[in-house]
Specification:
Layout lengths: L4 E6 L9 H10 L5 E4 L6 H7 L4 E3 L7 H6 L3 E6 L2 E6 L8 H6 L7 E3 L7 E5 L2 E5 L12 E7 L3 E7 L2
């Protein structure tokens, strides 16, 4: 079946500069995406400027610098191929964050969030909830990002940073 829209999904890149590894990972993983979503904590404006090479829709995170904080909204809703996607960074402890981000939006098809650094895919009623995880690996998790494909259905994929 033909993929109608392919969305690259990032969160928690936590980079002060655009590294060669980051460039390689993103250009290799997202050669044919239509839209890129970033759920906050890019950390620096230079990362945002690099990601502007794609059609990016981003929100700010708690670790973003002042420039990003003034530029990006706390949350947003994007309509992509007739699907409403709510994007928010998230806040608080990882336990219960799914409830927190779900409650941020009314009547969306998908909620995309970050903050916890934990890749997640779940569903509440008719709403899909997707956390791509954190690009930058931590002591708990390997680095990950995601892809959402929208056709007649919606497919969610986590990709490990290698």
């Amino acid at each position: 079946m033909l993929v109608m829209v392919k969305i690259g999904v990032l969160s928690d890149t936590h980079l002060e500069s655009v590294t060669e590894d980051f460039k390689r990972h993103i250009t290799h993983a997202f050669p044919d995406i239509d839209v890129m979503l970033h759920a906050g904590d890019m950390t620096s404006m230079v990362v945002f400027e690099f990601l502007n090479n794609w059609d990016i829709r981003a929100v700010r995170g708690n670790m973003d610098d002042a420039d990003l904080h003034s530029l990006l909204p706390e949350k947003r809703i994007e309509e992509i191929y007739s699907k409403k996607i709510g994007i928010v960074h998230g806040r608080g402890a990882p336990f219960g964050i799914e409830d927190t981000v779900y409650s941020e939006f009314q009547d969306v098809d998908v909620v995309v969030y970050g903050h916890s650094h934990i890749p997640l895919f779940s569903k509440r009623g008719k709403t899909f909830i997707f956390n791509p995880g954190a690009y930058k690996a931590s002591y708990m998790n390997k680095g990950t990002f995601g892809i959402i494909e929208i056709r007649d259905d919606i497919k969610f994929t986590h990709i490990e940073v290698s």
